[in-house]
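Design job #97: recover the sequence.
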């Protein structure tokens, strides 16, 4: 039942690790790779809240036999020589975060990244941190706005992984950062940078990932947090409410989702002969299928075919310096009391050595 524990070192000072978690990606843009990925994703009770007796025949009899091929074609449009854009950006963010933290604190901090669905798995990376002596782990789900189907599901994955560990590490989880000043300022500066090169648009569209409407009605704070992000970003840019449009993308199934739907909204702007729109996705900190294909390709086509003249997609934060500094601030804010706790304290090291010697005297092996 329990996975093997790393060898215990008596007198070792507990290490601290950070685990970034993103949604997930298939291993390749192929139907064969999409099938297990979609099965894992669409089997999550937080993602699809339909009774299993009704959902299983639909998932296994229809969706997993038809959707992998179509999804593979969409992924093929945005796949890079380095692999999935989401995985590439998340790995880079973890690597950069390690360096940014090294400039801000003397504490040796381990940084890893994982995917909620697909690889690398959450349990795999938690084990890697434990094997490197991390007795404390800060988890940062890379979803600015909390939703039960994203951050809530991450808690489930963490619980499942911890249930297989005998010696469970201390854990902290960042619930959200939708209104963090550094995150808002990084978003605002990304828009300003775009405007400096391409000029201002007639309308700034902020497209967030959609969720079924009933989630809001049942108490999920996601919609409110999206609206707050949009309001703070608009204020930071000095925009009037009528210059901003908040919309929701990635609708799936027949249920009513949060509205307005992005595709319908941009098509309507095109019909109204709005000359130019800029579209950004503040709910994603890394470019992925939902931004590069659904927005930069499909939404653009919908706007232009409806009569719009000019469509600009503003990239996600990815590895921007201001975003990495904000992520570093988020990490350090949540590491208070942990980072530096004994790692560079001579007294703590002497106490750890004394503990090791006492354990050896009592017959311990190390």
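Job complete. Output follows.
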């Amino acid at each position: 039942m329990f996975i093997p524990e790393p060898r215990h070192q008596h007198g070792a000072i507990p290490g601290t690790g950070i685990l970034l978690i993103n949604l997930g990606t298939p291993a390749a843009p192929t139907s064969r790779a999409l099938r297990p990925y979609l099965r894992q994703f669409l089997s999550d009770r937080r993602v699809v809240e339909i009774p299993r007796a009704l959902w299983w025949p639909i998932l296994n009899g229809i969706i997993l036999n038809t959707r992998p091929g179509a999804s593979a074609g969409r992924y093929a449009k945005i796949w890079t020589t380095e692999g999935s854009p989401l995985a590439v950006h998340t790995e880079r963010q973890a690597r950069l975060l390690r360096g940014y933290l090294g400039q801000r604190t003397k504490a040796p901090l381990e940084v890893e990244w994982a995917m909620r669905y697909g690889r690398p798995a959450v349990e795999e990376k938690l084990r890697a941190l434990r094997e490197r002596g991390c007795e404390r782990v800060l988890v940062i789900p890379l979803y600015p706005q909390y939703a039960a189907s994203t951050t809530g599901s991450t808690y489930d994955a963490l619980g499942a992984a911890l249930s297989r560990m005998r010696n469970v590490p201390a854990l902290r989880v960042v619930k959200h950062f939708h209104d963090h000043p550094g995150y808002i300022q990084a978003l605002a500066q990304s828009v300003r940078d775009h405007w400096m090169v391409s000029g201002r648009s007639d309308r700034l569209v902020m497209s967030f990932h959609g969720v079924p409407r009933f989630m809001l009605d049942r108490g999920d704070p996601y919609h409110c947090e999206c609206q707050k992000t949009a309001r703070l970003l608009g204020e930071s840019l000095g925009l009037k409410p009528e210059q901003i449009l908040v919309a929701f993308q990635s609708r799936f199934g027949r249920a009513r989702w949060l509205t307005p739907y992005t595709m319908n909204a941009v098509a309507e702007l095109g019909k109204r002969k709005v000359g130019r729109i800029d579209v950004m996705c503040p709910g994603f900190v890394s470019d992925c299928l939902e931004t590069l294909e659904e927005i930069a390709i499909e939404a653009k086509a919908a706007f232009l075919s409806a009569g719009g003249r000019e469509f600009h997609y503003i990239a996600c934060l990815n590895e921007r310096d201001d975003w990495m500094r904000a992520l570093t601030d988020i990490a350090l804010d949540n590491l208070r009391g942990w980072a530096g706790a004994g790692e560079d304290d001579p007294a703590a090291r002497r106490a750890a050595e004394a503990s090791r010697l006492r354990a050896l005297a009592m017959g311990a092996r190390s």
